[in-house]
Amino acid sequence: MAAAVRSVNKMYGVCFNASRQTTGLTASRLLQHRAFRVGAVRRQQSFDSTLEKPQFPGASAEFVDELKFIQPNVISGIPVYRVMDRQGNIINPSQDPQLSKETVLNFYQKMTLLNTMDRILYESQRQGRISFYMTNYGEEGTHIGSAAALDPSDLVFGQYREAGVLMYRGFPLDMFMAQCYANADDLGKGRQMPVHYGSKDLNFVTISSPLATQIPQAAGAAYAIKRENMNRAVICYFGEGAASEGDAHAGFNFSATLECPLIFFCRNNGYAISTPTNEQYRGDGIAARGPGYGMLSIRVDGNDVFAVYNATKEARRRAVAENQPFLIEAMTYRIGHHSTSDDSSAYRSVDEVNYWDKQDHPISRLRHYMTTRGWWSEDDERSWRKQSRKTVMEAFEKAEKRLKPSPELMFTDVYEEMTPNLNKQREAMWRHVQQYKEHYPLDQYEK
Amino acid sequence: MAAAARFFVRGANSKLSISGVGTGTHSPFAAALLKLSPSSSSGVPTKTQRRHAHFSFQADPAPTQYGPTEKMNMFQSVTSALDNTLASDPTAVIFGEDVAFGGVFRCTVGLRDKYGKDRVFNTPLCEQGIVGFGIGAAVAGATAIAEIQFADYIYPAFDQIVNEAAKYRYRSGNLFDCGSLTIRAPWGCVGHGSLYHSQSPEAFFAHCPGIKVVIPRSPVQAKGLLLACIADQNPCIFFEPKILYRAAVEQVPVEPYTLPLSQAEVLQEGSDVTVVAWGTQIHVMREVADMAQEKLGVSCELIDLQTILPWDVETICKSVVKTGRLLISHEAPITGGFAAEISSSVQEQCFLNLEAPISRVCGYDTPFPHIFEPFYIPDKWKCFDAIKKMINY
């Protein structure tokens, strides 16, 4: 079976090296390249007991007569792919994606704008202005690098710490704020806690709190998208903690067996709230699990925006071309607390956090790359910081003044249609609120 | 799941000739051994475990308004619905364990050959994956029809159903939804299914706003309601009474048709007692209604609820206002069973109309037993007795 797969891959590989330079493949050319892969190749095996080779349907292997357990390799595990060193210097010039100044500046500005928005919204929760918030400190590189490598039509399933992906795609500050404030402009109609963003226009599926539930969903979406033959991929983000959930195992296995054009992007940031990685898993991280599912896997430096970009770009290209899932484990560090409900000094040292903030940060590494090329000066930095703070504060003040959505919206969208039962409850709610109106904050809500 | 597979090996239908050491009851060795056992040598026929079913299926008259009909049992009516769907909706896909070869209950026979491997396919053995995958496919715009091999095995998917599918539209402000997801699962007692092949889990899902739960009583109902679920733009769970798969045979329209969801059906009008049931139990209650008329002179109004969620409160209450008495019966355990919800709502709305306390005849609060099934199920005698008590209250 492995030999069959290799030969099919080689066959496709030949086609693809040629087409790699081509932009804008038409759908019909894609159809030629992108058949339903090895699933069509059934292993019609004739069992032959005269051969001294295992005949088991379950595995393709040789016999061995030495009793030996396979040792999991956690001391020198899967290596970490990077393009820049910690100072932002390119290590191997062939790996520099050589993006334009405009593109790189955009990366930088999106990462820093996200950082600014995080600071302001975190503070606003501390002041009781919003109920809850989660920052993205330290992980901005994983968001922007991967988002930039995708097509805008690619469908994104996230966990909750991927706001930069949405920001990169152009989700307005007003809409971030509207969701956090749950005001009448919130696309989600005020139903969820802050940071549970979603955007149909930007192909970003609305976040839900249960962890890892998005992983098998991403596999299903990728399967449906594969059948449409429209050169679209799906990306699914999750943390190393969520990867312990049964849903993660389900999603990996389904995507591999059903040959889905899907990128699994694991943000391994060292902690799941207070649980460090050595209490989360005993193997070599998440990347080492990929081969167990028959999945191509890679580990990258998540704080190196070019490494993230290169890996995601290649994974996306091949996932769509070959109809198979890819696993990218982006190593990074969660500089902030898990959320506004967490104080991480309870379980980790300030020194540890400072190391990552000062010595290995995606934003500073990219800035060094830019300043080396003369693309960004101190003045640029000062004026950009000032401008981004201003735009964030404007959006913030506007969102705060806005009324909340009408309580009518408590009862809609449970089903596509209003049901008689819900209608009755809605009417009962209004009758009650009318009678006891002084006890309900009606003035803060739209009618 | 291996248990399920063993459950369904039908040696008589197998084309394989199994010979060799210890390979099943059809080897000459085993048959010879059984012949030598005492009960056989005395000339008395060996005792079989199979008993008579606790109901007899009553077919409805063939429908005339949906075009030509064909004789079908319930699994064939399901296949017909799925066939119609795959034919008319190019995005439709059917998946689950063992659906490719036709399914352990033969509901998907022939569909893979007819419509292709990309549309009718096996998944790995993982219910949370099946439902999660189905949700994602629906979110991306496909009509996703997921099969859970037995309703007893739906629980690993409970989080995906309750926390995700049911809430997808609401939590996203209607930006996203998985309305084109339908989950099908065999449901209910089957004579020997025991704990894990007999369950009726509708009550767990009745408590979950955002999904629909539907249970048919017959092949005609199964096809029409399943097509309605598939067309419905909300995630639906469709429980199929497995004991009816072969036992229920009717004239079923060949063309697609839908029956309304959330609309209970009055099967027979009456004046003394309202009787509410769904699925297999309808056929039990039909017989109970006859017994009540014959032995007690009591006229029963029999209602098939069909949709458990959202349920048709109006039709039930209208009937109870007329009769003043209500009996609800289901196989699932009585505590927290769906009869409790119906009972509670009806007493709220029809309190002054009631002549007697509302009666529930259900399974006991035990896991579904194997050898004790005849004692466990809410059979016609228990229901008859309940009516007698209500009349004499």
N- to C-terminal distance of chain A: 64 Å
CATH architecture annotation of the largest domain in chain B: 3-Layer(aba) Sandwich
The DSSP helix count of chain B reads 16
Mean pLDDT of chain A: 91
Largest sheet properties of chain B: 7 strands, mixed
User: Strand order across the biggest sheet of chain A?
Assistant: 1-7-8-4-3-2
Helical content class of chain A: 40-55%
Let me know the number of strands of chain B. 14
Distance between the termini of chain B: 48 Å
Subcellular location (chain A): Mitochondrion matrix
Family (chain A): Belongs to the BCKDHA family.
Keywords (chain A): Metal-binding, Mitochondrion, Oxidoreductase, Potassium, Thiamine pyrophosphate, Transit peptide
Pfam families (chain A): E1_dh
Describe the protein in words:
The complex is a heterodimer of chains A (447) and B (393). Chain A is of the alpha/beta class and 447 residues long. Chain A has helices at residues 2-19, 27-33, 101-126, 140-149, 163-169, 173-181, 214-228, 246-257, 305-322, 350-359, 362-372, 378-401, 420-435; strands at 80-81, 155-157, 234-239, 262-268, 271-272, 275-276, 296-301, 326-331. Chain A has a six-stranded parallel sheet, with helices on both faces. Chain A is globular. Residues 1-42 of chain A have low confidence and may be disordered. In chain B, 36% of the residues lie in helices and 17% in strands. Chain B has 16 helices and 14 strands. In chain B, the strands form three sheets. A seven-stranded mixed sheet of chain B has the order 3-2-4-5-7-6-12, sandwiched between helices. In chain B, strands 9-11-10-13-14 form a five-stranded mixed sheet, with helices on both faces. In chain B, helix 14 (338-350) links the parallel strand 13 (326-333) and strand 14. In chain B, helix 4 packs parallel to helix 10, helix 6 (127-139) runs parallel beside helix 7 and helix 13 (313-323) crosses helix 14 (338-350). The longest helix of chain B has 16 residues, at 281-296. Residues 1-20 of chain B have low confidence and may be disordered. Chains A and B meet through helix 7 and helix 8 of A and helix 6, helix 7 and helix 8 of B. Chain A: One of its GO terms (molecular function) is metal ion binding.
